[in-house]
Amino acid sequence: MANSTKDPVLVVVQLTGGNDYLNTVIPYNNGLYQDYRPNIGIPQDTVIPIDDDLGFNPNLAPLKERFWDAGKMAVIHGVGFEGCNRSHFRSMDVWHTAEPDRMGTEGWLGRATRELDPKGENVLTAISFGPGLPRALALPGVPVASVMELERYGVMTGISPQAERDQALDVFARMYGPTIGSGYVMDYLSQTGSDILKGADILKTAPAGYSSTVEYANTPIAQSLKGVAQVHLANLGARVLYAEYGNFDTHANELASHEPLWQNLSAALVDFYDDLREHDASDNVAILLFTEFGRRARDNGTGTDHGTGGGAFLIGDPVKGGFYSEYPSIDEAKLLDGDLHFNYDFRGLYATVLERWMGLDAKPCIGGTFEQLDFL
After folding, report:
1. Are residues 185 and 286 in the same domain?
2. Going by C-beta distance under 8 Å and a sequence separation of 6 or more, which residues neighbour residue 69?
3. Around Cβ 315, how many Cβ atoms within 10 Å?
4. CA 139 to CA 60: how far, in whole Å?
5. pTM score of the predicted model
6. 38, 157, 226, 257: most buried, per Cβ within 10 A?
7. Mean pLDDT per 10-residue segment, the chain (376 residues)
8. Taking Cα atoms as reference points, which of 233, 165, 225, 243 lies closest to residue 205?
9. 300 shares a domain with 248
10. Same domain for 261 and 131
């Protein structure tokens, strides 16, 4: 758990598209790796060795230096779920709802937000940075702010001059006031509109009060994490902060696309952490990186196709660094139809984060009891 004077905060970064785990955490001393990947294999002499078997992609060097070497980075091997059909849409649905056996409608983090704030007293308990609201945060009755650019976040910001916008906002507020009507649908619309207004009004104060010596890059993930830092440092009571990053769907030209993806992500995470450290605000933040699936063991000529088993990462001051779970075998006979086998249910990852970090009972959020690991 976090320092008793601070509430634990979870930052989730979704690596959209299916990150290639074999080219991220690399079995560099296994000859099969190069056999499977004659075109896109990472050269052995450029891999960052971690032990005699595994090493990091060279573009993770900033993460290795800042987090791994300090014991603040956990790498969880073989994360996935039974019956993965290699569909982006279905796999992401499963990760978002924690329901692999049916089409779920409630996001696991939406449920967690409800547990954190049962009465919905803080409309900023959960905030998403990026286009749209990820399904992981969606749950009727649970307010979640969805922000593209924090500095421009608000309602009807495209209306000018200010007097006309004020008039439009007044109409908007009266539309979503208590006189809107009765019944479940009308009550839901009323509450949603009120939450939007309230959240926008509070969030616009975060950039104004922010000051830092850290200069974030002008990349989407860096700017999202800058927004996360601004909100966290504003002490608005946000407990779950979500950002999406990608595209990791490297079917073609993988070496040219995978390299900058991890370069930009690594730099953004280091800047984010340095920003929090500068403000003595890193000790109650844990960062979860996940992706919907891994890639196939063999390359397709210039890239890799959809696979099953992948991996996840936990980063931050509260994290007990190291490798967790078992790296899936790449022996031909032990592959799952050409893919790495998953060997750790992703709901165990969620359970560990929810119970050991957020202080919640995981069962209402993920629908059961699953093996937890000791990375928190």
Report:
1. no
2. none
3. 26
4. 35
5. 0.89
6. 226
7. 77 98 98 97 98 98 98 98 92 96 93 95 91 90 82 47 48 46 43 51 84 97 96 96 96 98 98 98 98 97 96 98 97 94 96 98 97 98
8. 233
9. yes
10. yes
